[in-house]
Amino acid sequence: MSSPSAPNAAGPSQFAQIIMLARGYAPAVCLHVAAKLGIADLLAGGPKPVSELARLTQTNEDALYRCLRALASIDVFRETAPRTFADTQLSEALRDVTGSARDAVLFMADPMHMNIYGELMHTIKTGGTAFTKVTGMEPFEFFRQNADENKSFNNAMTSISRQFIQPVIEVYDFGEAGTLADVGGGHGALLAMVLGKHRGLHGIVFDLQHVAEGARPVIESLSLAPRCEIMGGDFFKFVPPADSYVMKSIIHDWDDTRAISILRNCASAMRGPNGKVILLEMLIGPSNEPSLAKWIDIEMLAMAGGRERTETEYADLLAKAGLRLARVVRTASPLAVIEALKA
To answer: Which of 235, 266, 287, 313 could form a disulfide with 309 if both were Cys (CB 3.0 to 4.6 A apart)?
Structure first.
Protein backbone atom coordinates (compact mmCIF):
# COMPACT_ATOMS: atom_id res chain seq x y z
CA MET A 1 0.00 0.00 0.00
CA SER A 2 1.55 3.28 -1.06
CA SER A 3 1.75 6.12 1.38
CA PRO A 4 -0.11 9.31 0.48
CA SER A 5 1.98 12.03 -1.05
CA ALA A 6 2.82 14.95 1.22
CA PRO A 7 0.65 17.98 0.55
CA ASN A 8 2.30 21.12 -0.72
CA ALA A 9 3.07 23.53 2.12
CA ALA A 10 1.81 26.41 -0.01
CA GLY A 11 1.06 27.35 -3.57
CA PRO A 12 2.83 30.26 -5.27
CA SER A 13 0.23 32.85 -4.23
CA GLN A 14 0.27 31.78 -0.57
CA PHE A 15 4.05 31.70 -0.63
CA ALA A 16 4.17 35.25 -2.01
CA GLN A 17 1.64 36.43 0.57
CA ILE A 18 3.58 35.03 3.50
CA ILE A 19 6.80 36.54 2.13
CA MET A 20 5.07 39.94 2.01
CA LEU A 21 4.04 39.52 5.64
CA ALA A 22 7.56 38.43 6.61
CA ARG A 23 8.90 41.63 5.09
CA GLY A 24 6.43 43.84 6.95
CA TYR A 25 9.32 45.89 8.30
CA ALA A 26 10.11 47.13 4.77
CA PRO A 27 6.90 49.19 4.32
CA ALA A 28 7.39 50.50 7.87
CA VAL A 29 10.89 51.82 7.27
CA CYS A 30 9.91 53.24 3.87
CA LEU A 31 7.02 55.08 5.54
CA HIS A 32 9.46 56.42 8.13
CA VAL A 33 11.81 57.68 5.39
CA ALA A 34 8.97 59.37 3.51
CA ALA A 35 7.64 60.99 6.70
CA LYS A 36 11.10 62.15 7.78
CA LEU A 37 11.79 63.67 4.35
CA GLY A 38 8.37 65.37 4.17
CA ILE A 39 7.56 63.86 0.76
CA ALA A 40 3.80 64.16 1.23
CA ASP A 41 4.15 67.89 1.94
CA LEU A 42 6.32 68.39 -1.13
CA LEU A 43 3.57 66.78 -3.22
CA ALA A 44 0.74 68.78 -1.66
CA GLY A 45 0.65 71.15 -4.63
CA GLY A 46 0.54 68.38 -7.22
CA PRO A 47 2.73 65.70 -8.84
CA LYS A 48 6.50 66.14 -8.97
CA PRO A 49 9.24 64.17 -10.73
CA VAL A 50 11.49 62.20 -8.45
CA SER A 51 14.47 64.21 -9.70
CA GLU A 52 12.95 67.33 -8.13
CA LEU A 53 12.02 65.48 -4.95
CA ALA A 54 15.58 64.19 -4.65
CA ARG A 55 16.96 67.71 -5.17
CA LEU A 56 14.65 69.19 -2.55
CA THR A 57 15.43 66.48 0.01
CA GLN A 58 19.14 66.16 -0.85
CA THR A 59 18.80 62.41 -1.44
CA ASN A 60 19.94 59.93 -4.08
CA GLU A 61 17.44 60.05 -6.95
CA ASP A 62 17.53 56.35 -7.82
CA ALA A 63 17.25 55.23 -4.19
CA LEU A 64 14.39 57.64 -3.50
CA TYR A 65 12.57 56.50 -6.65
CA ARG A 66 12.74 52.86 -5.61
CA CYS A 67 11.45 53.69 -2.12
CA LEU A 68 8.50 55.70 -3.48
CA ARG A 69 7.76 53.08 -6.15
CA ALA A 70 7.45 50.43 -3.43
CA LEU A 71 5.17 52.66 -1.36
CA ALA A 72 3.04 53.38 -4.42
CA SER A 73 2.42 49.63 -4.73
CA ILE A 74 0.50 49.79 -1.42
CA ASP A 75 -1.32 53.05 -2.33
CA VAL A 76 0.98 55.35 -0.38
CA PHE A 77 1.76 57.84 -3.20
CA ARG A 78 0.90 57.19 -6.84
CA GLU A 79 3.23 57.13 -9.84
CA THR A 80 1.21 59.26 -12.27
CA ALA A 81 3.83 59.20 -15.06
CA PRO A 82 7.24 57.53 -15.32
CA ARG A 83 9.28 58.62 -12.25
CA THR A 84 6.67 61.21 -11.23
CA PHE A 85 4.67 60.91 -8.02
CA ALA A 86 1.53 62.37 -6.49
CA ASP A 87 -0.17 62.12 -3.11
CA THR A 88 -2.98 59.68 -2.38
CA GLN A 89 -5.49 59.67 0.47
CA LEU A 90 -3.09 57.49 2.45
CA SER A 91 -0.01 59.61 1.84
CA GLU A 92 -1.97 62.74 2.76
CA ALA A 93 -1.96 61.28 6.28
CA LEU A 94 1.84 61.71 6.29
CA ARG A 95 1.70 65.49 5.88
CA ASP A 96 3.11 67.72 8.62
CA VAL A 97 -0.27 69.20 9.57
CA THR A 98 -2.50 68.99 12.64
CA GLY A 99 -4.45 65.76 12.66
CA SER A 100 -2.06 63.78 10.45
CA ALA A 101 -0.39 60.47 11.32
CA ARG A 102 3.12 61.79 10.65
CA ASP A 103 4.22 62.02 14.30
CA ALA A 104 2.80 58.55 15.02
CA VAL A 105 4.71 57.08 12.05
CA LEU A 106 7.94 58.81 13.08
CA PHE A 107 7.69 57.18 16.50
CA MET A 108 6.33 53.74 15.59
CA ALA A 109 8.59 53.12 12.60
CA ASP A 110 11.70 54.64 14.16
CA PRO A 111 14.84 52.45 13.92
CA MET A 112 14.97 52.21 17.73
CA HIS A 113 11.47 50.75 17.68
CA MET A 114 12.64 48.21 15.11
CA ASN A 115 15.53 47.21 17.37
CA ILE A 116 13.08 46.48 20.16
CA TYR A 117 10.93 44.27 17.95
CA GLY A 118 14.11 42.46 16.96
CA GLU A 119 14.20 41.15 20.54
CA LEU A 120 10.60 39.93 20.60
CA MET A 121 11.79 36.33 20.99
CA HIS A 122 13.21 37.35 24.39
CA THR A 123 9.72 38.47 25.40
CA ILE A 124 8.06 35.32 24.07
CA LYS A 125 10.50 33.07 25.95
CA THR A 126 10.70 34.97 29.23
CA GLY A 127 7.67 37.25 29.45
CA GLY A 128 10.03 40.18 30.07
CA THR A 129 9.83 43.20 27.80
CA ALA A 130 12.07 43.51 24.77
CA PHE A 131 12.24 47.24 25.54
CA THR A 132 13.98 46.65 28.87
CA LYS A 133 16.37 44.14 27.31
CA VAL A 134 17.41 46.67 24.65
CA THR A 135 17.52 49.85 26.76
CA GLY A 136 18.11 48.55 30.28
CA MET A 137 15.18 50.65 31.52
CA GLU A 138 11.41 50.60 31.68
CA PRO A 139 9.83 52.80 28.97
CA PHE A 140 8.79 55.81 31.01
CA GLU A 141 12.13 56.01 32.82
CA PHE A 142 13.85 55.81 29.43
CA PHE A 143 11.72 58.63 28.03
CA ARG A 144 12.38 60.72 31.14
CA GLN A 145 16.12 60.45 30.53
CA ASN A 146 16.07 60.86 26.73
CA ALA A 147 14.60 64.17 25.65
CA ASP A 148 14.41 63.50 21.90
CA GLU A 149 12.70 60.14 22.31
CA ASN A 150 10.39 61.63 24.93
CA LYS A 151 9.37 64.37 22.52
CA SER A 152 8.79 61.84 19.74
CA PHE A 153 6.67 59.64 22.01
CA ASN A 154 4.50 62.50 23.29
CA ASN A 155 4.05 63.96 19.82
CA ALA A 156 2.89 60.54 18.63
CA MET A 157 0.42 60.18 21.52
CA THR A 158 -0.94 63.67 20.88
CA SER A 159 -1.33 62.84 17.18
CA ILE A 160 -3.25 59.65 17.97
CA SER A 161 -5.43 61.46 20.53
CA ARG A 162 -6.46 64.14 18.07
CA GLN A 163 -7.50 61.56 15.48
CA PHE A 164 -9.14 58.93 17.69
CA ILE A 165 -10.79 61.19 20.26
CA GLN A 166 -13.12 63.19 18.01
CA PRO A 167 -15.44 60.20 17.45
CA VAL A 168 -15.48 59.70 21.25
CA ILE A 169 -16.41 63.34 21.84
CA GLU A 170 -19.25 63.03 19.35
CA VAL A 171 -20.99 60.11 21.09
CA TYR A 172 -20.09 60.39 24.79
CA ASP A 173 -21.36 63.07 27.20
CA PHE A 174 -18.68 64.03 29.74
CA GLY A 175 -21.10 66.41 31.49
CA GLU A 176 -21.27 70.13 32.17
CA ALA A 177 -20.40 70.26 35.87
CA GLY A 178 -17.63 69.27 38.23
CA THR A 179 -13.97 68.48 37.67
CA LEU A 180 -12.62 65.83 35.30
CA ALA A 181 -9.04 64.67 35.88
CA ASP A 182 -7.18 63.29 32.87
CA VAL A 183 -4.83 60.78 34.51
CA GLY A 184 -1.74 60.23 32.40
CA GLY A 185 -2.97 63.18 30.37
CA GLY A 186 0.29 63.83 28.53
CA HIS A 187 0.29 67.14 26.69
CA GLY A 188 -3.40 67.78 27.30
CA ALA A 189 -4.82 67.00 23.85
CA LEU A 190 -7.68 64.85 25.14
CA LEU A 191 -8.74 67.15 27.97
CA ALA A 192 -8.52 70.21 25.72
CA MET A 193 -10.97 68.59 23.30
CA VAL A 194 -13.34 67.60 26.11
CA LEU A 195 -13.28 71.06 27.72
CA GLY A 196 -13.75 72.66 24.31
CA LYS A 197 -17.10 70.90 23.95
CA HIS A 198 -18.27 70.84 27.59
CA ARG A 199 -18.05 74.51 28.60
CA GLY A 200 -19.22 73.99 32.19
CA LEU A 201 -16.59 71.39 32.99
CA HIS A 202 -13.31 72.00 34.79
CA GLY A 203 -10.26 69.82 34.26
CA ILE A 204 -6.92 68.63 35.61
CA VAL A 205 -4.10 67.34 33.42
CA PHE A 206 -2.21 64.91 35.66
CA ASP A 207 1.01 63.20 34.58
CA LEU A 208 4.66 62.97 35.52
CA GLN A 209 5.88 66.52 36.11
CA HIS A 210 8.17 66.69 33.06
CA VAL A 211 5.33 65.41 30.86
CA ALA A 212 2.51 67.49 32.32
CA GLU A 213 4.46 70.72 31.76
CA GLY A 214 4.12 70.04 28.03
CA ALA A 215 0.37 70.57 28.40
CA ARG A 216 0.73 74.15 29.59
CA PRO A 217 1.23 75.80 26.17
CA VAL A 218 -1.62 73.71 24.72
CA ILE A 219 -4.05 74.70 27.46
CA GLU A 220 -2.98 78.37 27.41
CA SER A 221 -3.16 78.64 23.61
CA LEU A 222 -6.80 77.54 23.73
CA SER A 223 -7.65 79.96 26.57
CA LEU A 224 -8.56 77.04 28.81
CA ALA A 225 -6.25 77.92 31.72
CA PRO A 226 -9.09 79.38 33.89
CA ARG A 227 -10.81 75.98 33.75
CA CYS A 228 -7.83 73.65 33.72
CA GLU A 229 -5.12 72.90 36.27
CA ILE A 230 -1.85 71.15 35.42
CA MET A 231 -0.42 68.83 38.06
CA GLY A 232 2.60 66.55 38.26
CA GLY A 233 2.74 63.29 40.16
CA ASP A 234 2.97 59.51 40.09
CA PHE A 235 -0.41 57.83 39.54
CA PHE A 236 0.85 54.69 41.30
CA LYS A 237 1.10 56.78 44.49
CA PHE A 238 -1.87 59.13 44.21
CA VAL A 239 -4.21 60.97 41.87
CA PRO A 240 -5.70 64.40 42.58
CA PRO A 241 -9.23 64.59 44.03
CA ALA A 242 -11.80 65.03 41.28
CA ASP A 243 -15.43 64.27 40.51
CA SER A 244 -14.54 61.91 37.67
CA TYR A 245 -11.47 60.53 35.92
CA VAL A 246 -10.63 59.83 32.31
CA MET A 247 -7.70 57.78 31.02
CA LYS A 248 -6.90 57.25 27.35
CA SER A 249 -4.67 54.28 26.55
CA ILE A 250 -3.23 54.26 30.07
CA ILE A 251 -4.47 51.03 31.60
CA HIS A 252 -3.30 49.02 28.58
CA ASP A 253 0.29 50.03 29.41
CA TRP A 254 0.33 47.96 32.59
CA ASP A 255 -0.04 44.42 33.89
CA ASP A 256 -3.09 43.64 36.03
CA THR A 257 -1.42 44.39 39.38
CA ARG A 258 -0.26 47.86 38.41
CA ALA A 259 -3.45 48.63 36.46
CA ILE A 260 -5.53 47.79 39.54
CA SER A 261 -3.30 50.11 41.62
CA ILE A 262 -4.06 53.06 39.30
CA LEU A 263 -7.79 52.30 39.21
CA ARG A 264 -7.95 51.87 42.98
CA ASN A 265 -6.28 55.26 43.48
CA CYS A 266 -8.95 56.83 41.26
CA ALA A 267 -11.75 55.10 43.18
CA SER A 268 -10.28 56.26 46.51
CA ALA A 269 -9.74 59.89 45.47
CA MET A 270 -13.10 60.29 43.71
CA ARG A 271 -15.36 62.91 45.26
CA GLY A 272 -18.83 61.64 46.11
CA PRO A 273 -20.58 58.39 45.25
CA ASN A 274 -21.68 59.30 41.71
CA GLY A 275 -18.34 59.89 40.03
CA LYS A 276 -17.07 57.91 37.07
CA VAL A 277 -13.86 56.37 35.87
CA ILE A 278 -13.87 56.60 32.09
CA LEU A 279 -11.39 54.46 30.17
CA LEU A 280 -10.77 55.03 26.48
CA GLU A 281 -9.23 51.79 25.29
CA MET A 282 -9.26 49.34 22.41
CA LEU A 283 -11.10 46.09 23.06
CA ILE A 284 -9.98 42.66 21.91
CA GLY A 285 -12.71 41.13 19.75
CA PRO A 286 -13.61 37.54 18.85
CA SER A 287 -11.04 34.96 17.77
CA ASN A 288 -9.78 35.30 14.17
CA GLU A 289 -11.44 38.70 13.73
CA PRO A 290 -9.06 41.24 12.13
CA SER A 291 -8.23 43.83 14.76
CA LEU A 292 -5.81 46.70 15.29
CA ALA A 293 -6.14 45.94 19.01
CA LYS A 294 -4.51 42.53 18.57
CA TRP A 295 -1.44 44.14 16.99
CA ILE A 296 -1.28 46.95 19.54
CA ASP A 297 -1.37 44.14 22.10
CA ILE A 298 1.96 42.93 20.65
CA GLU A 299 3.27 46.49 21.06
CA MET A 300 2.27 46.38 24.72
CA LEU A 301 3.86 42.94 25.11
CA ALA A 302 7.20 44.05 23.68
CA MET A 303 7.35 47.63 24.92
CA ALA A 304 5.63 48.12 28.25
CA GLY A 305 4.57 44.75 29.63
CA GLY A 306 0.92 45.77 29.41
CA ARG A 307 -1.89 44.29 27.33
CA GLU A 308 -5.08 44.98 25.41
CA ARG A 309 -8.09 43.34 27.04
CA THR A 310 -11.56 42.01 26.30
CA GLU A 311 -14.67 43.62 27.76
CA THR A 312 -14.91 40.77 30.30
CA GLU A 313 -11.28 41.25 31.33
CA TYR A 314 -11.91 44.97 31.92
CA ALA A 315 -14.96 44.15 34.03
CA ASP A 316 -12.86 41.82 36.19
CA LEU A 317 -10.05 44.37 36.48
CA LEU A 318 -12.45 47.13 37.57
CA ALA A 319 -14.11 44.88 40.14
CA LYS A 320 -10.75 44.18 41.78
CA ALA A 321 -10.23 47.96 42.13
CA GLY A 322 -13.57 48.59 43.85
CA LEU A 323 -15.38 49.67 40.69
CA ARG A 324 -18.06 48.14 38.50
CA LEU A 325 -18.45 48.24 34.75
CA ALA A 326 -21.54 50.35 33.99
CA ARG A 327 -21.49 50.35 30.19
CA VAL A 328 -19.34 50.21 27.09
CA VAL A 329 -19.89 52.77 24.32
CA ARG A 330 -18.50 51.83 20.92
CA THR A 331 -17.25 54.63 18.69
CA ALA A 332 -16.24 55.14 15.06
CA SER A 333 -12.58 55.10 16.16
CA PRO A 334 -10.68 52.02 17.43
CA LEU A 335 -11.30 53.29 20.98
CA ALA A 336 -14.29 52.28 23.08
CA VAL A 337 -15.57 54.17 26.14
CA ILE A 338 -15.50 51.92 29.20
CA GLU A 339 -17.52 53.63 31.92
CA ALA A 340 -17.14 52.48 35.53
CA LEU A 341 -18.85 53.52 38.78
CA LYS A 342 -18.00 52.86 42.41
CA ALA A 343 -19.01 49.33 43.36
So the answer is: 313
Give the integer Cα–Cα distance in Å for 338 and 343.
15
Say yes or no to pLDDT of 244 above 90. Answer: yes
165-175 CB burial, b ≥16 within 10 A, e <16 = beebbeebebe
Range of the domain at 314: 154-342
Pair 232, 208: CB distance under 8 Å: yes
Per-residue pLDDT tens digits for 29-41:
999 999 999 999 9
> Is 252 a catalytic site residue?
yes
Same domain, 218 and 335: yes
Whole-number pLDDT of residue 251: 98
Q: Per-residue DSSP letters for 303-332?
A: HTS---B-HHHHHHHHHHTTEEEEEEE--S
User: Which pLDDT score is estimated for 99?
Assistant: 86
Global pTM reads 0.90
How high does pLDDT run on average in the chain? Answer: 94
| Catalytic option among 32, 187, 198, 252 | 252
Instruction: State the CATH number of the domain containing residue 316.
Output: 3.40.50.150
On whether residue 43 sits in a domain, the answer given is yes
Question: Number of structural domains, the chain?
Answer: 2
